[in-house]
Write a structure and sequence with these properties.
The chain contains five helices and 14 strands. By secondary structure, it is α+β, with helices and mostly antiparallel strands. Bound molecules: 2-oxoglutaric acid.
């Protein structure tokens, strides 16, 4: 099941959402822990773009949520959704429940995690380099996914996970416009297809918070469901996981009372 709704966000809500996002301080994470050698000789690298997670944070260095095996210490409790996002969340959930077969909506499903991606170009060695894309991947969180787009439009594609070569081509291509909502779920779109952001249209307009040496031209908010029993407060993380993300949590705590509190409560059980 795939549904695209252009013009989903009313202008006032869009404005409120952008005002909230404008106050965030996104993180630019490294793909692997900086305390150990990357696994299987993988090269260490910065993620392609800065991100901010709400609800729970999947730090790249702890690896992403991948049930059934990749569950422990993958999703770290993060700031709750602010009222503007909670309002949109409720409406998206209502639409999804109305449109999807109950078979594709797991028990207890609701949006409790939101990844905010900042797409743009970064200054590298005095040159602006376009990094506005995401490679093919699956979202392993159970149930439907909702995605809101702001700013320059993006070419979003579903491709078969069985693909032998490029000849096969994308199974579905969708331009995601400013203010649009895309939802997808069910076996075909979640399990059999992978998805990617192939490119983001060029634009001289920027949006979102100031990020040093970076120009954002598109923001995407992807909503998913992580079973609450798989979300771990910072203080309950294992020692290695806690050490891996400690610097990030300190950076977040500089601007986020939630993460400052998480650090203060570190020794509370
Ligand atoms: O930016 C988008 O439209 C999609 C982002 C995405 O694929 C993801 O967060 O998993």
């Amino acid at each position: 099941m795939h549904q695209y709704t252009p013009g989903y966000l009313p202008p006032k809500l869009r404005e409120q959402l952008l005002a909230y996002i404008g106050g965030l301080h996104p993180l630019w994470e490294m793909r692997y822990s900086t305390l150990r050698e990357p696994p299987n000789g993988q090269p260490q690298r910065q993620l392609l773009r800065p991100v901010y997670w709400l609800g729970n944070w999947q730090f790249a260095c702890l690896d992403y949520y991948r049930p059934p095996k990749g569950i422990k210490d993958r999703c770290v409790q993060a700031e709750p959704f602010p009222p503007v996002i909670d309002k949109i969340r409720l409406d998206m959930e209502r639409r999804i429940r109305a449109a999807f077969s109950p078979r594709d909506v797991p028990k207890g499903w609701h949006f409790n995690t939101c990844l905010i991606n900042f797409y743009g170009e970064k200054l590298e060695g005095g040159r602006w380099v376009d990094v506005a894309r995401v490679g093919e991947h699956r979202d392993f969180e159970p149930g439907p996914v909702g995605s809101l787009s702001l700013g320059a439009r993006a070419m979003f594609q579903f491709v078969s996970s069985q693909r032998i070569g490029e000849r096969d081509g994308p199974r579905l291509s969708q331009w995601l416009d400013d203010g649009s909502l895309q939802v997808f779920g069910g076996r075909q779109f979640k399990d059999l297809f992978l998805h990617r952001v192939q490119r983001v249209a060029r634009s001289t307009q920027t949006l979102g918070p100031e990020i040093s040496d970076y120009r954002t031209r598109r923001i995407n908010l992807t909503f998913r469901f992580v079973p609450p029993e798989h979300v771990t407060p910072y203080r309950h993380l294992g020692g290695q996981a806690k050490a891996d993300i400690q610097t990030y949590v300190h950076t977040l705590a500089e601007h986020s009372p939630f993460f400052a509190q998480a650090l203060a409560g570190e020794n509370v059980r």
